Amino acid sequence: MKHSHKRDAICEVLKAKRDHPTADMICERVREKYPEISLATVYRNLSQLCSDGAIIKIGAAGRERYDIDTSDHTHFFCEACGEVYDIFSPLELYGLANAECEIGGKINFAHITFRGQCKNCIRKENN
Amino acid sequence: MKHSHKRDAICEVLKAKRDHPTADMICERVREKYPEISLATVYRNLSQLCSDGAIIKIGAAGRERYDIDTSDHTHFFCEACGEVYDIFSPLELYGLANAECEIGGKINFAHITFRGQCKNCIRKENN
DNA sequence: TCAAAAACGATAATCATTATTGTTTTTGTT
DNA sequence: AACAAAAACAATAATGATTATCGTTTTTGA
What we know:
By secondary structure, chain A is an alpha+beta fold. Chain A contains 5 helices and 5 strands, in the order αααββββαβα. At the A-B interface, strand 3, helix 4, strand 5 and helix 5 of A face strand 3, helix 4, strand 5 and helix 5 of B. The structure holds a DNA duplex.
């Protein structure tokens, strides 16, 4: 896996702030270092990094978000502030075995997203 | 919840074949009864039915699919044949409590999708 | 019966993403 | 270093799903 400078910069951005940015958030951030980078380049590299297995899309319908943490984990979208949090409890907790059993097939990939209100937003609400 | 004729027909289609069709699959099927229906009408009614809580989008990135079963349940996409199956085991099995605990927030909605190979496709492969 | 509201079809617009194209940069080899 | 081939790039056009607009038709309910 060789990386071009821009592709490296995209990875750096994803490492620096783990807030699961969208393609254009990534583009903005990379532009601090490479002001001329094109959104097309960002998309091209993101899909390349995905197929290399270096990053993942988290599967948000309508507007994708990217994550450099490719380990099995789960996401929580706060509907109040829009923040996306990671949940690192092991996936077995999420009933994979049960699902496989019910469906009688083989699960390769689990896409689990929770939506709700995060700690901070609940606290704010109670003021 | 009053329904127009076309809106009714959309619900009928969703009830008749629970294969989680996309908007244009629904449009095709409704056209058997109302050949003149426009795709825009299908989309307009689908989003209305969603906000009424009569149906749900299952959240497939890039190409949405709709489900008239609004009870808590989970989906399994077969990557081989493209079929979408339901998994009706109770959501508690999928670690909601654990996730809420880890995140310290309140979960309103769980979106759980598994991908893999279904029974039939595994069988076919082993021929 | 008739006016207001809702729904409609056709089509234009939007938005995220992907493809194309001609140019620039990088790489590996003499 | 020189240079040809490969990879990456910016700009922009194209795509595909979905949403918005608009003028017309249908439904509703007083």
